[in-house]
Structure formats: structure tokens, C-alpha cells
Amino acid sequence: MILAEFERAVMTGLLAGDDPLLETLRQQYQSAAVRDREVTATGFVTRFDVPSSVPPIARKLLHLDDLQVEIEGANTPADTSVHVHNGRLRSLECFVYEGVFPESPVIRSAWYYGTKKFPGITRELMAARDVEELLEEE
Hints:
single chain; 4 helices
């Protein structure tokens, strides 16, 4: 799996859920262009440019980080997170805590906090996500 395919799979998991806010973020992602990608030994950050024609979400700041993935060849699970700034999708970050992030990551399993492991980012996994708790404003 090349990095762009891995990113698409992770973004599918991070933006999953039956909520208008997540639907708007999915629209932003579909329209977004990759501005740049910073790759390190332990992971990467991909930054996006979202066209102004795509509506923002009402929340100015949002951090979705409840998805973890187990990657073939990695020593630890990878943390994943999406960052929203000024109502617009800004970046995707993925990293491992120990060892090296594989050049061609292949997802062996995935889970949201509070769910069991699933064999990848599957419909069953996404259906198990607690969207209400995830989007609860503090």
C-alpha cells in the first residue's frame, strides 16, 4: 500500500460517522488538495488546502484522534489524528511511538478507543464508533 492509499483509508476511518459535521468534513476532504507532506522516521503529517467554495464546519477547532491502526512491520500501533482549524480540514498526522514507520504501510487491524480490534478499517469498525462522545463539546 502506498502512502496516499494508506492516508485515504485512515481518513475514511477518521471522518466516519452519521453526523452533519463529519459529512461536511468528508466533502472538504473530497475537494482538498495536498499542500505538502512531511515524512519522518516515525510517521508523517499531510497538510491540505480546502477550496473556499466548500463550506466550513461551525466549530473553529477540532481534533479527531480516536483511531489507532496496527501496521505490518511497525513495533507499536500508529496514532492517527485529523486537525481542523477555522472550520476547515488542515492536516492528517500518523505516527508510531517506537521504531520506524513503514515506507509502504499496510493496515493489519484498526480500532477506535473503546472498541475491539477489527481486521482493517471496515464498515463494522466504523459502525462501532461512538460519534456522539467523539463530537461532544467540552
